[in-house]
Amino acid sequence: MAATAASVDTQHEDTIHDVQFDYSGKRLATCSSDSTIRIFDSEPGHPPIKVAELRGHTGPVWRVSWAHPRFGVVLASCSYDKRVIIWKETQPNSWDILYEYTGLTKSVMCVAWAPVEHGLELACASSDGSLAVLTYEKGTTDRNTWRETKIPKAHPGGAMCVSWGPAFPPGSLISGTEPSPTSAAAPAISPQKQFVSGGCDNSVKIWVFSDKAHTGTPTWECAQKLEMHTDWVRDVAWADTLGPISTIASCSTDGVIVWGQDRPGTDSALWKPQETLNKFGEPVWHVSWNPTGTLLAVSSGTNKVSLWKETLDHKWKRVDNLDEQQSSS
Question: Is the per-residue pLDDT at 123 higher than 70?
Answer without folding.
Answer: yes
